[in-house]
Amino acid sequence: MNVEQARFNMIEQQIRPWDVLDPSVLSLLAVVKREDFVPAAHRAVAFMDLEVPLPGGQVMLAPRVEARLLQELGLLRHEKVLEVGTGSGFMAALMAHKAQTVVTYEKRAELASLARENLRHAAIMNVEVRQGDGSNGDAGRGPWDAIVLSGSVAEVPEALLQQLKVGGRLVAIVGTEPVMRALRIRRISEREFRTEVLFDTVAPHLEGFASPSRFAF
């Protein structure tokens, strides 16, 4: 496999046509080596438009979904980010290049260990991988400029919303199959949140999250 050609094709044929047009995101996808975050047994499909299997029955989201979520977060260099659902660490690696710090929670110890090793190998130093249930966030380290859920949830917990700074935003895929939507929820004031529907998609459910309520579709 010509890796660089495969990477180019992923960006130009999958990601750009999915309305990912931010030059900083596209350039990151050309630089951060996705194949180094894919288990060796699945390297041949690292750049394909599909969810890559991970240990424990988990998956990496499809490249176009990861890229679109990253674009919609609109991260700035001074910002502090919380991720729930580390997986192999690839999304955290991308965000680390755009933000000041990333704290990412992974419920499965095997994946947390894998992500730490992948990030170390990529020489990314501003990501902290924490093994545990991140469904209620990390209030002690917040508030957060941005929160991303790297998987789908039936609802967005109120606890996560309350950990956003005013002006902060949370991006998540919300709903139940067959209808899920990526949402961006922005905190306008201490009491007001504004929700935008970004795109329709389907993604695996994140472990530990509850059933539908306020922001479910």
Low-confidence segments, ≥5 residues, pLDDT <50? 212-217
Main beta sheet strand tally, sense and closure: 7 strands, mixed
Average predicted confidence as pLDDT: 94
Strand order of the largest sheet: 5-4-3-6-7-8-9
Rg, please? 16 Å
Brief synopsis:
The chain is 26% helix and 28% strand. By secondary structure, the protein is an alpha/beta fold.
List keywords for this structure.
single chain; 217 residues; alpha/beta; seven-stranded mixed beta sheet; two-stranded antiparallel ribbon; 6 helices; 9 strands; 28% strand; globular; disordered C terminus
Describe the structure.
- α1 crosses α3.
- With 217 residues, this protein is an alpha/beta fold.
- The protein is 26% helix and 28% strand.
- A 7-stranded mixed sheet has the order 5-4-3-6-7-8-9, with helices on one face. It has a two-stranded antiparallel ribbon with strand order 1-2.
- It is globular and about 50 Å long.
- The chain starts with a helix and ends in a 17-residue tail after the last strand.
- The C terminus is likely disordered.
Secondary structure elements and pairings:
Elements: H1 3-15, H2 23-31, E1 52-53, E2 59-60, H3 63-73, E3 80-84, H4 90-96, E4 101-106, H5 109-121, E5 127-131, E6 144-153, H6 158-161, E7 164-176, E8 179-187, E9 193-200
Parallel strand pairs: 3-4, 3-6, 4-5, 6-7
Antiparallel strand pairs: 1-2, 7-8, 8-9
